[in-house]
Amino acid sequence: GCVGRRSWREKWQTRVQRWVLVDIDDIDGLDKIDQTVWNETGTYGLEDVEVDDSCAIVRTSANGIQIWLKLSLPRYHPAEWYGQSSVRRWYRNLGEKLLGHLRENGAEGGHVDMSACAEGRHGRRPGWRIKNGKTFCSRLVYSVG
User: Fold this and answer.
1) Which string of DSSP letters, residue by residue, matches 55-97?
2) pTM of model > 0.85
3) pLDDT (tens digit, 9 = 90+) per residue, 17-29?
């Protein structure tokens, strides 16, 4: 499996990483983004050499999105892989490219949440949530693969 442990006394660990999560927070103007731009953003992410042919974008709040990209090669030692500075640079650059595309198309501000650049990260599923005292329905805005 993707996570496991050798004995019941050990903590669970990620054994293989097949997807990467790019979490973008504090981005305004997402209501201005139409479906064409979401499609372009997903396609733009798929152009990266480390990424395969599958992508999903979830709008998690009025000012947040999560972009899931399938890695072209599974990483069988994810903690070691994410521990490399070159991987963190790649992750930041990929996130900044995706964020830049959204900014070019009407969004403002935002930042890549680097805490999502770690093994075994969990994302938000589509559904209702409360954030800052307001309700919001997280929803899938793009998927392919």
Assistant:
1) EEEEEEETTEEEEEEEEEEEESSHHHHHTSHHHHHHHHHHHHH
2) yes
3) 899 999 999 999 9
